[in-house]
Design brief:
There is one protein chain. The protein is of the alpha+beta class. The protein has 6 helices and 10 strands; from the N terminus they run E-H-E-E-E-E-E-E-H-E-H-H-H-E-E-H. Strand 9 and strand 10 form a beta hairpin. The longest helix is centred in the last third of the chain and has 13 residues.
Length: 196
């Protein structure tokens, strides 16, 4: 079975309405990624893949865990990460769903570069095979959704041209790629260009 969608951090979840508005461009870009099958669900095993987030003044708004199969996405399928701690492997979130299993991964981008305000994590086997070790690539022993992955992203910012390319391959996460940018339009366009 694929190691997908399992939350690997300690989560402190408040099951209540989101305290922020979900931006329309977040809904639009998430659905565009779903239409392209870059975010979705492995139907045979009913496990979702891919996620999307934006940085807000009040925290990080991220798609909820196991929402890859939902289309069109609705605001209540997002969660607001209000705080996190890599050292203690914890995430605090609020919303009607728990935050994505990749929350610490997304947080690492926002920590590494204050200009980053959007992150999109997709799955595509063809792109993964083509660009592993061509684009900045995380170590193959580093699994998704962990503090180790967050540290690996920070390492790639220090040691590679990741900040310029705004695109990476997750070496230890089959099919996983991540694009980021100053906004969703930049991150999404990077992925559309890659597909083209």
């Amino acid at each position: 079975m694929k190691d997908e969608g399992v939350i690997k951090f300690n989560i402190y979840w408040q099951d209540e309405n989101l305290p922020v508005e979900v931006p329309q461009d977040l809904l639009r870009w998430r659905d565009r990624m779903h239409e392209l099958k870059l975010i979705g669900e492995y139907t045979g095993i009913k496990i979702g893949y891919g996620n999307i987030s934006v940085k807000l003044n009040r925290g990080m708004l991220i798609s909820g865990t196991q929402t890859g199969n939902i289309y069109p996405i609705r605001p209540e399928q997002f969660s607001l990460v209000t705080s996190y701690d890599m050292k203690s492997n914890t995430v605090d979130c609020t919303g009607r769903v728990k935050a994505s299993a990749e929350s610490l991964t997304h947080a690492a981008f926002y920590e590494a570069d204050e200009q980053v305000h959007a992150v999109i994590h997709i799955h595509n086997k063809t792109l993964w095979d083509r660009y592993i070790d061509v684009l900045p690539t995380s170590g193959r022993s580093v699994t998704y959704g962990t503090a180790d992955m967050a540290e690996e992203i920070k390492r790639l910012f220090r040691e590679t041209d990741l900040s310029d390319r705004k695109l990476m391959v997750m070496g230890g996460h089959d099919e996983g790629l991540i694009a980021f940018g100053k906004d969703l339009d930049e991150a999404g366009t990077i992925l559309l260009d890659l597909l083209a």
